[in-house]
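Lab channel / #folding
Pinned by the channel admin:
"Please post every new chain as: sequence first, then the structure tokens as a reply. Keep commentary short and put observations after the output so the thread stays searchable."

First post following the new format, from NK:
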Amino acid sequence: MNALETLETSRYNESIQSVLPVLAAHREATETGRSVAPESIAALKAAGLARLLTPSRNGGHGASLRAQLHACAETARACPASSWVMMVCGAHNWIAGNFSARCRAEMFDADPDLFIAGTLASQGTFKKAEGGWLLSGRWQFCSGVDHSPWLLIGALRAKDSGGGPGSLHVMLPRDQVELDDTWHTLGMRGSGSKDVVLKDVFVPEHRAEATGKLFSGRSPHAHDHENSGLYMVPVLCSLSAQLAGAVLGMAREMLSLFIEKTSVRPDIYSGEGSGAKARRGTMQRRVAEASGEISTAELILARNCDMFDEITVAKEPVDEAAQALLRWQSAYAVELCRRAVERLYAGAGAHAAYNDSPMQQYYRDVMMATHHAAVDMDGAAELQGMQLLGVEPD
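Reply from TO:
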């Protein structure tokens, strides 16, 4: 049992294990198709993993964030992109719990296994309209948009808005947006994180929430649920930890692949045969350090999960110090995984450079994943450093 597993998460192990062969079998199709294979999406839904964080009142499991992290880490070993889409859309399904009951019913009543794609960054604008808002703009990085009938996106108030909060997050049907396939990238190619474009698309008031309350865990709709404390976890604290869970799984698999290859790898220039590289102290040190970094990342994320459990039980708003710590721990866990994967790939030899090498894909995917703003190392370190030093933000 790893540090993310508990009796609660073990309830989902059978479901997780059931999808791994499917995800692995379609990993290459996902990569080349630049979108998660339909077979993989179907397997995640059939196993009930799409509804892991969907509110129980809307047909979901209403599981803990620890269960989601565990599922993301395990599935990432079989297919990073499938895990990524499950992570992003699962996070949005969880955020849906802080939207109105009417909004949730519109989305989940017809399909409690749906994935909600979208992007949390407020990249477009909104203007006030009769009974709601008009949204316009371009939103990048909509992971899993090919497989989602609904989107969650954020927007800033336009100068000529005529009123409203500074920022809104809304739910809207995917058929109201235009998809622009811009997703040609270094890594995470299978996530299908395309752009969506809106031009004066109307969103009714009941499908919109002020970003401030939504992101801080202070939405009044949290109290619609028996486990209301789960919805009081701040959004960026939750998202960064879920993202780190997926990266942890990728790093674990990279370590396994490296050990498997290195244990039989010959030394070409010395003429020594199978296993020669494994007998080198330099390789042994790479494996030891990488293993230590990955294990440390796992323990840090387990601490985040402990804090999430405490917040869920307390059912109280989370102060700035705890938020800074949660975000820092997620970002640092991702950084440790990045260092481990970087170290392993540097010692993997020339064969790891080929496109058909799994190590090359896992390396690229980890490097790409670490660029997500939710785990920005500099920003998270600054927030935590200010808290530790007692420095007030400018």
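NK: The domain at 233-389 is CATH 1.20.140.10 (Butyryl-CoA Dehydrogenase, subunit A; domain 3).
TO: also worth noting, The mean pLDDT is 96.
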